[in-house]
Amino acid sequence: MKRRYLIRVVALNIAVWALALVWALPFVGILMISVMPYQEVITKGWLRIPSLDTLTLKNYIEALTNPLYDLATGFRNSVVVATVSTLIPLFAAALAAYAFANLDFRLKPLLFALIIALMMIPQQLIVVPLFFLYRSLGIYDTLQGMILLHSAWGIAWATFFLRNYLKFIPRSLIEAARVDGASDFKIFRRVVMPLAVPGLIAAAVLQFTWVWNDLFYALVFLVSRENQLVTQKVVTLKGEFHVDWGLLAAGSVITMSMPLILYVVFNKYFMKGVAGWGVKR
Amino acid sequence: MALSRGLRPALFLSFPLSLIAVFVLYPMVATVFYSFYDKETGSFSLNNYIDVLLSAHPLYMLVAQSFGPTPPWGALIHNLVWVALHVPLVTLLGLVLAFLLKYYVKGSTLVKAILFLGIVIPPAVGGLIIRFMFDNVVGVAPTVFSYLGVEELSKTWTAYPQTALFALILGSVWIWSGFAVTIFSAALESIPKSHVEAAKVFGASMWHIFSRVIVPQLKPAVIIVVVMTVLWDMKIFDIVYASTGGGPGGSTNVLALVMYTYFARALDFYKSAAVAVLLTLIAAPFIALVVRWLRE
Q1: A281–chain B nearest CA distance, Å
Q2: Share of chain A above pLDDT 70, in %
Q3: Burial class of residue A101 (count of CB atoms within 10 Å of its CB; 0-12, 13-18, 19+)
Q4: Where are the domains of chain B?
Q5: What are the chain A neighbours of B182 within 8 Å (beta carbons)?
Q6: What does the pLDDT read at residue B200?
Q7: Chain B residues with CB inside 8 Å of A221's CB?
Q8: Residue-wise over B92-117: b if at least 16 C-beta within 10 A, else e?
Q9: N or C: which end of chain A has fewer CB within 10 A?
């Protein structure tokens, strides 16, 4: 009985680990193809230790610098858009989250329900009127326009996320500061924000990743080559009929490098941030 | 103390809410208006909706007039097929994996970290990788099937209407399972280990522990995973745009992509708005559910 159980557990371990390897395999493939000459991929396959003397960065250089693809420009634009579109909504959401967590007002239940609804609606529902608005304001096809949109779009979920975080801060702490005569802004800056740093980091990492990963808004609002973001550029690497897998793989690695680095560095914040959806507070 | 009760929240809310009002709320309401706007007559009618629902053009078809054995069946139907396959696959896989990882598997942190990668990377890159996985020259799936001698599945899956939609759905299991595992793992933390230990002492089988002890206690998490996955499937865009662009012959088209095609290709902004509203209407019951739980 005991032995059979043990065998079963070992078999399960092997099965789950095999699945994990299957899950990782596409990443391995993309990485291998990006640094191997394509001729070699075709003749020998990519699932092997690459021979060091034929390793090449040709695909990376091609994807980044060939004016036809120009991922370097896309990457730079994405850094700018994602950075600013993280700072603005985080600041705005911190303010709103403070109000929802610590102040009482009549419209609170209604506004909070609205915030939750807004973070669930499809992106498609808002782009047509914004397209008209942007054209008349002259910010269509500009990074500023993109930043404004992503900033506003990010506020809803960041408010919800941070408000849940702020709820953990004991109310007595805030009441004590209030008794001492501190204004709300002072409490916000000196008491609440310092305690909310881990929550702010998690929200920042998730928001940055979300903006970086987005393709839909970029496709709608950025058209000229010098303004396009990296997610737009990478899909153009895929030719109409012929696919240059080496190039496409290198472009994919470049595009996903940023969220992957963030994920490795901020692993705990990432997992907790996503798990937060499932845990009722 | 000088500030009145109503003014204090206003100070905190005015900046965030005004950004939301201009860039989210206003366009949301305006989209609904535009969706009824008939650009031929300049009046408001249901014409956009009728045209959009009846279109039989492969790039725009939402519901096919007649259903063949293989796609294209229309974008709306493809979304529903996506939900019908993807939701149960992801939920079951997530439940089983979270359970095994928590109680039986060594090195579960690393396995979870690998599974999680799918939701970290841009879905557009995910789409490109799906295409790679199912390519007949360099991809994994066709190579395996040609080795097994299955002729129909050793081709490039994304190039044929019979297989393209299913390739994308399977690929989206690869991308999205990490979400389910993460949610279920977090929920498992709240189940006292003593429950499982006690069941083990009484000689309950692994299956028994899973189905009688664990799953009943994970019900709220299951509902969350199901609803979030349904919403993800209904809104799906990047993966399809990057991998197949809706082809071949419209066999992988989805609602969000039709919306974009009306917008960017036909330059018919009002029909595009109508598709966006339809998409939202279908998602609305699930959004309402989320609002109900999360507001507590």
Answers
A1: 8
A2: 97
A3: buried
A4: 33-294
A5: 271, 274-275, 278
A6: 83
A7: none
A8: ebbbebbbbbbbebeebeebbbbbbb
A9: N
Confidence of residue A48 (pLDDT cuts 50, 70, 90): confident
Asked if the model's pLDDT at residue A50 lies above 90, the reply is no
What whole-number distance in Å separates Cα of residue A119 and Cα of residue A128? 18
Q: Smallest CA–CA separation between A264 and chain B, in Å?
A: 9
Q: Which one of A98, A149, A274 has the shortest CB-CB distance to B23?
A: A149
CA A248 to chain centre: 21
Question: Position A151: which residue type?
Answer: S
CB B16 within 8 A of CB A96: yes
| C-alpha distance from residue B146 to each of B129, B153, B206, B270 (Å) | 20, 7, 36, 47
Query: How do residues B248-267 score in pLDDT, each as one tens digit?
Result: 999 999 999 999 999 999 99
- Do A123 and B235 lie within an 8 Å CB cutoff? yes
> pTM of the full predicted structure?
0.94
Nearest to A278 among B118, B183, B264 (CB): B183
Q: Is the ipTM of this complex over 0.85?
A: yes
Burial class (CB in 10 A: 0-12, 13-18, 19+), A67: exposed
Contact residues on chain A for B131, CB-CB shorter than 8 A: 238, 243
Contact B125, B136 (CB under 8 A): no
Flag if B129 and A30 touch (Cβ within 8 Å): yes
Residue B128 to residue A234, Cβ atoms within 8 A: yes
Enumerate the β-bridge partners of residue B93.
none
Q: What are the Cα distances from residue B150, in Å, to B7, B67, B144, B165, B283?
A: 70, 26, 9, 19, 38
Compute the C-alpha angle A248/A257/A139, nearest 5°.
85
What chain A holds in terms of domains, given with CATH numbers, is: 2-56 (no CATH), 78-228+265-275 (1.10.3720.10)
A36, A54 in Cβ contact below 8 A? Answer: yes
pLDDT of the residue at B50: 95
| Interchain proximity A121–B133, CB inside 8 Å | no
Whether A124 and B291 have beta carbons less than 8 Å apart is answered as: no
The structural architecture, per CATH, of the domain B33-294 is Orthogonal Bundle (1.10)
- Using an 8 Å CB-CB cutoff, list chain A residues near B272: 128
